[in-house]
Amino acid sequence: MARPPARAAAAAKAKEYTFAWEGKDRSGKVIKGEMRATGEAVLRNHLRRQGINVVKLKQQRLRSGRRISNLDITMFTRQMATMLKSGVPLLTAFDIVAKGHSNASMTKLIMEIKSDIETGSSLTQAFRKHPAYFDSLYCNLIQAGEQAGILDALLARLATYKEKILAVQKKIKSALFYPTAVIVAAFVITAVIMIFVIPAFKDLFSSFGADLPMPTQIVIAMSDFFVSYWWAIFGGIGGGIWAFLKAWKRSEAMQIAMDRFMLKLPVLGEIMKNATIARWSRTLSTMFAAGVPLVESLDSVAGASGNYIYKMATKKLQTEVASGTSLTVAMQNTNVFPNMVLQMTSIGEESGSLDAMLAKVADYYEEEVDNAVEALSSLMEPIIMVVLGTLIGGLVIAMYLPIFKMGEAVGG
């Protein structure tokens, strides 16, 4: 008799728990493992069907861990690649990696994937259930590895790809850190001086009984405004930043505008462009080397490009390639790729080594990003000193002008 739809839905949504178990197989060998199930009885029946007599069974209580980051996924990929290359069975590799991970959230994710595999899902299907952590590019490469029987090699290639992408992202964050630090430091120091220091000078100057120099009057007026409306200033800036980040995250129009703007910035724009090309080339090289057809590879490359301009350009050239146009000509028609990239792609197509040529392009532009970030860091250090020195020095001079004038009057 079929269950009512409501009961079937309730059964499908039943809460699962993680159990650590120990038992003996048909030959009497002691084996251990972890598995997710809705209850002890369900787990015992499942293991019994596999010929395992359960001796010990205990529900695991995982601590709530931090948010799963790209670094966690990258480390997991590298560890799995190393395990499989060493000949460790897949499920055992999952156990080892899960137990050795410091992030409880990542441990839970790994055990969920392992549980899906134990219940008959392929590795690709298990990964696709978690699109927040494993994108289409990741899953497509895993699928290619499973089908070709070279999962360890594909995981190693995927780990290398993610490590290089993370390295480029780290360099971009490093490049953006210095100007952000200058702005924040300048604002905080100015606010402290305006709210706490200048009012003390104002009380002192009020006893002079003389007209104050214009720079001093301007600074005192600014201080009065800060003291009276500090709550509006800090609230407005904090609220504005929060609203901007929310809009950037949720609004596609805002994301498009920011992607265009970032590429047009004087120094950072060139760094962002080189980083995007490096990521684009690295992604296509990895996909193509794994045996994924070019048109399908471009679909994953568009999503992984990290910039709307290059995402739309990739969609356009994907359509042209699907209709028979060569990759080099299609890339040239987009007008977003430098001549060097076009030449290397053309050589790769003619020689049948497109993946190797694109990997060289990625290496070149990753090195360009590295050099640009180092140059920017060296340039920003004196700029920070000049900006802060000018700001603080200007305020100090404005506050001491009346004292200098009073000294001149007494000396005269």
Q: How would you characterize this protein structure?
A:
This protein has helices at 5-12, 40-49, 70-85, 90-99, 104-118, 123-128, 136-148, 151-206, 214-250, 252-264, 268-289, 294-304, 308-322, 327-334, 339-351, 354-411, and strands spanning 17-24, 30-37, 53-59. With 412 residues, it is mostly helical. The protein has three domains: 14-59, Ubiquitin-like (UB roll) (Roll); 70-162, Type II secretion system (T2SS), domain F (Receptor-associated Protein); 163-412, Type II secretion system (T2SS), domain F (Receptor-associated Protein). The chain starts with a helix and ends with a helix.
Report a brief summary of the structure:
Helices cover 75% and strands 6% of the residues. The protein contains 16 helices and 3 strands. The chain has helices at 5-12, 40-49, 70-85, 90-99, 104-118, 123-128, 136-148, 151-206, 214-250, 252-264, 268-289, 294-304, 308-322, 327-334, 339-351, 354-411; strands at residues 17-24, 30-37, 53-59.
